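TL;DR need structure tokens for one chain.
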Amino acid sequence: MRPERNVASPADTGWMPVRPEPPQSALSPYLEAVRSHVVLVVVVLAATVISALAWSDVQPPRYAAEADIFVTPLPAEAAAVVGLPLIQDLRDPTRTIQTAAALVNSDAAAARTAQLLGDGWTLREVARAVDVDPRGQTNILVVRATAETGELAARLANTFATATLEVRRKALQSAAQAAIPSVQAQLRSNPTPELRSVLSRLRTLAGGRDPTLSIAQRATASSQSLGPSRSLVLLLALFAGAILSVGAALAVDRLTPDRIKSEDELLSIFQLPILARLPILRGRQRRRGPLEVEPQTREALRTVQVQLDLAGKQTRTIMLTSPSPDDGKTTTALAFGAALADTGARVILIDTDVRGMQARKSSRPAAPAVAAAFPQPGSGERERPRSLRGRLYPLEGHNNLQLLDASEIGFDSIDKRSRGRLAEAIHAAAQEADYVIVDTPPLGVVSDALTLVELVDDVLIVVRLRATKRIHAEITRDLLARAGVDPVGFLVIGEGPVGTYAYSYGHPSSR
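>> reply
TL;DR here they are.
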């Protein structure tokens, strides 16, 4: 059996918790949220842009046309003499023109416009399509109409302006004709010049038009539709999408458990050297699996090998653990073993994650890219081998890389008896291989894995940014500190969405 490992006391370890407060700018929370949820940001932004462009395409075009009505208010004295509802000068230009706009924009004018247009037009439709407003500080009222075509908009504006004058003319004629008999009676009993003047004006209004309103300019059809252009819609959608996507990222960031998002945050929990920074498996790399090590990953893992070999040991047992599940620990162990085997070294991987193995065998098969690395089982039930060599499964394409399922040696829990069997297996594996990699359960979740650190030479911690939970990292730190264990350092898996590194060993007999 391998002798017990001498561990240092917590006071002697050089990596005790250090909590520096890195300076942060006002934009740091937003940038971190975007980096943590890149996929969400892209999806929300794309959905906003696509929705805006689709809405712009399905909206029917609208056109506008304007006709101008000139207002000539009568002096208050003259209007009062006549006694008819004429537009009079109220000595306040703004109030005068607003009063004129209210008289022009009437239901009677809208009803007459609908009658003149025909084709099923109604008073309500005309009222929705036409607005009457003053033009700045002038005596001009703008009749603005909107419709599906430029020609229809111009026709609607001109018809409304004409209908307004017609309605006003008829109303004044009717009022003047009604007032004439009374003035004539007064004139017979009192023939004054003033009454003769009033009668003359009434007769003029009874046979003419409203002297206070006239059409200044008729509307013309426009070929330019209303609303923003497609390019402006795109710019506005991008702006709105950026705000919505960042807001969604911030919301998810606040609602999801706290995860380690940067190396600075990791080092604020406890100080350890970062031995290597590993990229995320993407696309074709992910389908090929971790045993097909990319040059960038292979070089990073060989750098870890060099750093471990500085101690000068000919054989080395290495424990890979992580704070949280799905940190990429198992995939990293496979890739590390493959990188070591590529140098000609003999490597044995020991999977001690009993709980993980049981879950994988019962409910979740190994990922296809990883499962393809194992030999396919033969027909019938595989007999339980009696020697360590018989318990080793070579991994496809790597003759120097073999897998030992700890359950094959009767290791099913981290008690004293099972631990003894595992210690014997690790010792035997170290006699046969140059490197023994022990894949343990995540220490921040399964604290029993702490008892295995005495069986290995070195402890490496795999951390995946934006996947490892801060609370699990703190638990891992505290457990190792109390045990006086000095890990070698971190293997940090870098940028990428959560879930793309979640492979598992899977056992040939379980597939």
